[in-house]
Amino acid sequence: MNGKIKKSANGFTLMEIIIVLGVLGIVAAIAVPAINNWLPNYRLKGVARELFSQMQKARSEAVKRNTCVIVEFENAAGGNRGGYKIFIDDGEDGGTASDGIHDDGERILIEREMPSGCSLYEASFGGGLITGYNARGLPFGNNTGSVKIKNEKSRYYQMSLSNSGYPKIKKSSDETNFN
Fold it and tell me: Mind listing the pLDDT tens digit of every residue in the chain (179 residues)?
């Protein structure tokens, strides 16, 4: 050892680290607002797709079990975000089958409340909040109609049910023109 400190070419200088952190900070400052706008719309799209798939599942369950499967919606009101319940309307344990009313013994397949930031603000099926499928996979009681959900960023989705029982999703940014 001769007392000299050997300089190594490995590693980063303090100046290089500060520059990289500065660039990362600028990129983060630009990206965070975009992500904050994107996330609520992405969440709402996920809710719409889940509702679509649950409607398809209700239809297949009705055909598979050869009985009615009902989808009962609840509109948002008084701080409630709304939601839906899907149950087998088979009159189990002394209930009345195919009446569109959930009796105590009838099995609930799924019960969902809208997640925070989303609300089910309008459901209308033949003038009521109930639709579903009969044993042939057609709309229960010919209750076709639609459900509308929204987020706080003024994005809207509508899930409509056709006469053949097929659900369809449309979106809108103004609540009137769904496509």
Answer: 566 666 666 888 999 999 999 999 999 998 888 888 888 999 999 999 999 999 999 999 999 999 999 999 999 988 789 999 999 999 988 889 999 999 999 999 999 999 999 999 999 998 899 999 999 999 999 899 999 999 988 899 999 999 999 999 999 999 889 98
Q: Name, in order, each residue with C-beta under 8 angstroms of 161's C-beta and a sequence gap of 6 or more.
A: 55, 125, 131, 139, 143, 144, 145, 146, 167, 168
Cβ–Cβ < 8 Å for 70, 55: no
Domains in the chain, ordered, with CATH? 38-172 (3.55.40.10)
Helices (H), the chain: 14-65
Tokens 């929204």 correspond to: 150
> Which pTM value belongs to this model?
0.80
Quote the CA–CA distance of 2 and 112 in Å, as a whole number: 76
- 161 is written with which tokens? 């049910």
In angstroms, the CA 92 to CA 98 distance is 11
The set of residues, in sequence order, having a beta carbon less than 8 Å from that of 93 and lying 6+ positions away, is: 103, 104, 105, 106
Q: How far is CA 76 from its chain centroid?
A: 14
